[in-house]
Design goal:
Blueprint lengths: L2 H13 L5 H17 L2 H15 L8 H10 L10 H10 L7 H14 L2 H9 L11 H9 L3 H8 L4 H5 L2 H13 L16 H16 L13
Helix pairs in contact: 1-4, 1-5, 2-3, 3-5, 5-7, 7-9, 8-9
């Protein structure tokens, strides 16, 4: 994936939002200031402050921009995001990626300290971050937590798990999605990553539910 092209496309989407002039002005000023000195403290400060300056309204995604996003990063869907979520993902792309160690360390610190909406943005950004293999552990850990919005950011309309999870991690994601009543039809790669172990695990789970007189989750039989 071309990070520069993705950054430009996301920023264009920002510009297309109603009454986004102040948000665009703020983000442009902060990017210019960061590029001048590239101080990590500034990068963190802006990431945290973004909602106060851009707002949290739902975004509108024109069909042509969604098409452009798919060309840059297949599987990425931003429909349903808020403006601050979009701006934060764009801001993450402003971090230079020439030094892998520094890049991974800087973003990892955000994961450690992030509040709910920050974590949602970080997990939403997984498909567009540099060094994707560096984030597989972080993503699998995110699935294990019990924060519904974080789980959804990883599981739903996010191509990262389908592209980078090994079979065990993928199967855990699918099982967790059923356990937490997620709409599994929104999981990218749901049928492409179907495998024998998952089918058997789901069959066992379905048998347990039937034995307990409980109904089966919607769509589970399609994967058995």
């Amino acid at each position: 994936m071309n990070i520069l092209t993705m950054s430009q496309t996301l920023f264009y989407l920002l510009e297309q939002q109603p009454n986004s002039e102040k948000a665009v002005s703020y983000l442009t000023q902060q990017a210019d200031a960061f590029n001048t000195g590239q101080q990590v403290a500034v990068f963190y400060r802006v990431f945290t402050a973004i909602p106060r300056f851009v707002g949290k309204q739902p975004i509108d995604v024109p069909a042509d921009i969604q098409f452009s996003l798919q060309r840059v990063r297949p599987g990425l869907i931003v429909e349903g995001w808020t403006l601050d979520r979009l701006a934060r993902v764009w801001w993450l792309l402003q971090l230079p990626a020439d030094d892998q160690s520094a890049y991974v360390k800087t973003i990892s610190e955000l994961f450690k300290a992030g509040e709910l909406n920050e974590l949602v943005a970080l997990y939403s950004a997984l498909p567009v971050l540099a060094y994707p293999e560096s984030w597989t552990f972080q993503a699998t850990e995110g699935i294990r937590n019990n924060i519904a919005d974080v789980q959804s950011a990883i599981m739903l309309h996010n191509p990262f798990p389908a592209d980078y999870f090994n079979e065990a991690a993928w199967n855990q994601l699918i099982m967790k999605a059923f356990f937490t009543d997620k709409d599994v039809t929104q999981i990218t790669g749901l049928h492409e990553r179907k495998n024998a172990r998952l089918s058997q695990t789901l069959a066992d789970y379905a048998a347990e539910r039937r034995a307990a007189g409980r109904s089966l989750p919607v769509h589970i039989e399609e994967l058995m």
